[in-house]
Amino acid sequence: MSTYGYGRSGRSGLARPREGRIIAGVCAGLARRFGTSVMAFRLLFIVLAILPPSSLLVYIVLWVVMPNES
Hints:
The protein is mostly helical. It has one domain (8-65). The chain is built from 3 helices and no strands. The protein is globular and about 35 Å long. The termini are far apart.
């Protein structure tokens, strides 16, 4: 199953895609890397954001650390 045009064979390194982003592309990049649904990662981050604010910090760190696709 393909998500935003990425199949399992299309996953390589951890990078934020230029297409399919909502905020910074962190969830889309993680979903593509691990071959899972983008919506699953987005829901996970939303649930974690309701809990302690550490998930927001994790998202910001991933935003800074994950490179953009070339």
